[in-house]
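Q: I'm building a small set of examples for a reading group on sequence design. Run inverse folding on the following structure and report the sequence directly after it, with nothing in between.
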């Protein structure tokens, strides 16, 4: 009884696998290999160019927009830092002592804008690095087969005798 149950389950599994396969296979052309080094060079030139080079067009505006945002933030915070530095130097040139509350406030503001500028520069560096890694991986993975032809079949093996099965998989 137990062996009959196993044979029925095996037959059911085999028939599901065999009949679930699509008989039409579409061969997709393999894209031309891209140079990962050139992809990184384009990204270093400007974030997003490496993505365009490897064909990831939808990622290019994200990388470029993020890089431009952080570059704008760096310029803005640098201008504010220069203003606060000039204010601080002006207060000192008026003869105010460094312990005066206005001078201490100017120092705090100057340090805040300096730190904000530097932090945005690190974020910009991170965007460059991420875009470079993405372009590098994209260039390497361009020839990777992502077709839908993934199959696994289990069939009885008539050559080896009764009771044996043959399993094969294709990528």
């Amino acid at each position: 009884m137990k062996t009959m149950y196993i044979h029925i389950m095996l037959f059911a599994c085999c028939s599901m696998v065999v009949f679930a396969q699509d008989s039409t296979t579409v061969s997709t052309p393999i894209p031309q290999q891209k140079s990962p080094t050139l992809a990184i060079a384009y990204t270093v030139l400007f974030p997003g160019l490496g993505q365009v080079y490897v064909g990831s067009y939808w990622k290019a505006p994200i990388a470029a927009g993020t890089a431009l945002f952080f570059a704008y933030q760096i310029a803005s915070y640098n201008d504010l830092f220069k203003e606060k530095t000039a204010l601080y130097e002006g207060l000192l040139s008026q003869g105010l002592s460094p312990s005066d509350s206005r001078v201490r406030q100017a120092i705090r503001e100057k340090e805040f804008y300096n730190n904000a500028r530097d932090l945005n520069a690190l974020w910009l560096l991170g965007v460059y690095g991420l875009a470079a890694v993405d372009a590098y991986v994209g260039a390497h993975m361009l020839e990777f087969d992502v077709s839908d032809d993934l199959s696994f079949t289990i069939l009885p093996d008539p050559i080896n005798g009764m009771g044996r099965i043959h399993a094969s998989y294709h990528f």
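Residues 101-140 form the longest helix (40 residues).
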